[in-house]
Amino acid sequence: MKNALYDKEVTCPLCKNIFRTKKVRTSSTRIEKRDTDFCTYYTSENPMFYGVFVCPMCGYAAMESTFHEINGAGKKAIEENITRRWTQRSFGGERTIQEAIEAYKLALLCGQLINQKKGVIGNICLRIAWLYRYANDPKETDFLKHAVRCFEQAFVSEPLPIGNLDEVTLMYLIGEIHRLIGNYEEAIEWFSKAVGNPAIKTKKKIDTLAREQWRLAKESFKNKKNQEQAG
C-alpha cells in the first residue's frame, strides 16, 4: 500500500539538515482492533511505524510531536553522545517492524540524553512495547515495565494531559499496564483511582474498560494468592 505513504519534509533543529521521512495518509488508515492498553492494529499501513523522525545526517531522533523541542544543552548532549559515533543512514523509506523499533529506541536514547519529560519517555517505551507485541517478542514486557514507571512519575510531577492522556485515561492506562505485567495489587489500586474520579463520568468507554479490567485484576490477584497458599 505504497500510495498510503507520502513524504514529509523536515528540518533538523540540531544540524539544520533538510530530509524527507514517510508519513501515512490519515484517509488511508484502517483500524482492525485495539488492545486494552490502546495498542492499535491496522489492516492498512501502521502510522505508528513512522511516528519518530530520524535525521540521517546527525542521528538526532524524536517523536514527531517533540522533534523541535530541543535546547542548547540538549543539542550539545546529542552531538557528543550520538553524532560523533553516528554512521549516516536514512530511516526515510518504508519501515519494517525492526526498523521502527530501531527508530523508537534511538528516540528513547536521545530523549534520555536531553532529559525529556517522563511522560514523553513513557510514551516512547509504550510504543516500543507495542512494536515488540506485533512481533510476538517477549521484550515487550521489559518496555511495559519502563513505560509504567515513567507514567507513574509523570502523573505526580508533570502537568496533565500527557500527550492525549488526560488524568482519568492515564490512571486507567497505568492500571492496565500493571495488570498486563502481573502487578495485580498496583493494578487494582490504579483502577480504583480511575473509577473513583468524578471526571470518569464523562468518559463512558474508559469507565467500562476500567471496571472490567478492575474485575479481571481482582480475579487474577485472588488466583495468585490461592496458588501461593497451595504451594
UniProtKB/TrEMBL annotation:
Pfam families: DUF2225. It comes from the Bacteria. InterPro entries: DUF2225 (IPR018708), TPR-like_helical_dom_sf (IPR011990). This is DUF2225 domain-containing protein. It comes from Thermotalea metallivorans.
